[in-house]
Amino acid sequence: MARMKFLCDADRCIECNACVTACKNEHEVPWGINRRRVVTINDGKPGERSVSMACMHCTDAPCAAVCPVNCFYTTADGVVLHSKDLCIGCGYCFYACPFGAPQYPKIGNFGSRGKMDKCTYCAGGPEADGSKEEYEKYGANRLAEGKLPLCAEMCSTKSLLAGDGEIIAQIYKERVVKRGYGSGAWGWKTAYRETIES
Predict the structure, then answer these.
(1) Quick check: 153 pLDDT over 90?
(2) Can you give the pLDDT at residue 79?
(3) What is the pTM of this model?
(4) What is the distance between the alpha carbons of residues 82 and 96, in angstroms, rounded to a whole number?
């Protein structure tokens, strides 16, 4: 079975935020939460790069390792999901994630911040695929429909790639060979504990 992964080619990202907007609209993500965001590194300086960031669905997910109630689980496709029914909102996953993916959905008085929210790779949650309950808690389940995450499909420069890890690694290798250089497959080694050799 394919191991689903994300790859952001920082040499192509133009910081248009189409990935962010597509995610918010597809899943009706509440105001103040961004399951995906674009971060600019070295803003205004030589070597400036923009990177589309979200949950990378790590091979050995640190969020799952620190969760005291084991609400995180990995699907057969390698997608890291969580159960909002089990989540207690402790925030350990927020501190453990190197990509800042888990977020509190609200800020309330007296410390009530709710259950954590994160990118689902457009794969829904533990409820039945396509059910109303699944959509209300996690958003659209595009993976069950045979589609890829909408953020990657809406990327106009194809900077953000999603899908079978072997296929997207090959696409990146071909780009590096054609360009003659690569600034690195952002987050790949941290998330998947491997490098892409060209």
Answers:
(1) yes
(2) 96
(3) 0.88
(4) 15
